[in-house]
Amino acid sequence: MNPLVAPESHDRHSRTALSVNVNKIALLRNTRHLGIPDVVKLSRQALEAGAQGITVHPRPDERHIRAHDVRDLAALVAEWPGAEYNIEGNPFHNLMDFVRELRPHQCTFVPDSSDQFTSDHGWSFPDDLERLKPVVAEANRLGVRVSLFMDPLPEAMAQARSTGADRVELYTEAFASAWGTERQAQVLARYTAAAEAAIAAGLQVNAGHDLNRDNLTGFLRAVPGVLEVSIGHALVADALELGLTETVRDYQRCIQRAYSAPPSRGSGPSR
User: Fold this and answer.
1) Which residue out of 88, 169, 196, 228 is catalytically annotated?
2) Where do the domains of the chain lie, and which CATH numbers do they carry?
């Protein structure tokens, strides 16, 4: 089992890692039978540009990431010192087969249905507590860090920790939707409180879903202890305009600004 970091070790000076979710690259590739764009080649380019990890979410219908991609990317990341591989998915569908075979650095458990359009909610407690415990324990025995996809509910964090999970990934769609509106400060405060509750419970904190170059800095300034952000849709869309290398570098600049400026809750766009 991966050791947990004690709550007091989390501080605002711990630099957030960027993991690039490459699902949308695979989705574009799958519209033809030519193998382009090349998911592995572009993942390597993202790592060369400064990304600290690669994320995939292989769904049972293989609408984007396919089984061979999961294995090919595991081989790529294994050759890349310091990079981490994060495989997301529902542990009661196809995810655990990949975890058992490949033993990635991290698996993120997401409560998706098999035909769900995109991830849109976190685990529910106490409803999901007992069924999660065995799969969390299995992943931990394999030496794989477990993160649970969670809504920003401070009261749920202690129960998330009781599953044996190492981290939570805060589902940030509500924050992204509120960004730039009069609800921004109120919604952002929920994420701050959820992260604080997670850290107090002994959990580490990740975040992802609809984070982008406009809102990322503001989120990281307000929410403590975020060790990793997983970004796919917006990053791939930005790459169509800027190119992948410059896009990854710009997201890293957004992260850097969060730690070079005074923390500000509810502040507006920073770029």
Assistant:
1) 88
2) 12-260 (3.20.20.70)
